[in-house]
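Running log. JK asked me to keep both predictions on one page so they can be read side by side. First protein, sequence followed by its tokens:
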Amino acid sequence: MIIDDDKVVDALEDVVSAGGCLVDYHSCDFFPERWFDLVVVLQADTTVLYERLERRGYSQAKITENVECEIMMVLLQEAHDSYDNNIVVPLPSNTPLGMDSKSTCSGYCSGLQPTRANTACHSG
């Protein structure tokens, strides 16, 4: 499946621009920076990630691709390339609670004084 980035942004524009949103997606390079006060990149230990994906029935090629991306911090670098570094925060997601991006991001955001009240979470 190929995602049309422009259509996704157009469809979300009114909702996200109003604020109070948590956007959870595996990539971030097409979301406008103006949408977010905080960009959280969830990261996992590679052994934990490998076992997690194996339990989900991912192919060996897909597991290898994901583990290599985690080792090279591809998602974190993508977030730093796409947004102001001051709003990009890596957080661990090695446990079931850490995998829940809403509670992980909400816990981190509890003391934040947002201007747009939007957070982007990118799961690793």
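And the second, directly underneath as requested:
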Amino acid sequence: MSKPTVLILGATGFIGRALTAYLVKGELATVTTVDKTLPECAYLSKEEEALFAKTTFMQKNLLQPKAIAEIWEGANYDYVINLAADTKYGHNDEVYAERVEHLSLACAQEAAKHNPKKYIEASTAQVYEPTEKAKKEDGPTDPFTNLAKYKLKVEQQLVKIAGLNTVIVRPATVYGPGDRLGIAPRIICGAVYKHAGETMKFLWTKDLKINTVHVSDVARALWFLCTANTKSGAIFNLADKNDTDQGKINEALEKMFGIKTKFAGKLMSGMVSKLSMDSIVAEVNDKHVAPWFQMTKDKGIAITPLSPYIDQELLYKKHLSIDGSAIEALGFKYEVPNMTEAKLREWVKYFVDLKLFPDGYLQ
């Protein structure tokens, strides 16, 4: 019996590499991978490179309609999973309109011409109202990042495409090996403060919600939803059971690096956010980036995609708090129910092994 065929758009990115590895190692599907970045240029591990070699890889710029059409020439795919988009923070509307909204809808519209069994779009839980209460899939939306604003626009238009059986996933903060933008900058900051011998301080309080989900569970959930009995347009949150907040993250970082951490508190943080957030964020990031550059240089690391830079959008009092249990009602089970120190150490090892993170800072 032949295996199902899966097309992964944005395959060499953080979630894409985890999904590719999961499908190929498990021999679950015949996989076609697409990205503008070649696997050998994507900072993959040796194991990941070997797994990509077992897929049909196409280098395509998905901003070009011709490139999208070429993916389907002489081929049909049972399942399409779109992870392609510019997911960096801090871009302006024009960039997100092109690299998130236009790109995503163009890929979906082309897919609709070929009638795949299911089309899964990766969105973000940042589309929800940023309050402390955990939101279910029908919770109020009020995107608190510019990226999320355009992800929500994609969601709203995607379900209107005739003949396309869609599922939308809204993951919390995704972390794990390969992460650069989720928990990663905070881990790097922990190493910087270990290097400096100083207390690491963050705005607000320990209770600020930054709910999480491990990338391995995201990969598993995406495949699970391919074959699950879902209605077109269905939305599923993805979040572990940890109810992660700033306090839990800092607690893990304290143990990992042997540092002390503290929070500025509501009053001081509120004053900063109202009066001088731009200058404070620039000053803090400068304080982190310069020593990080020296730390990597001292260890012979000439270039690394990792950075302690945290975009200003992520430093306001905006809770990311969601309920990820709806997918469990279909039979899915989270294998990493809690964000632990051990799991964050796995992230460090992944990048140390790639010689992209300086060794010697962990306790």
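Observation for JK regarding the second prediction: The mean pLDDT is 95.
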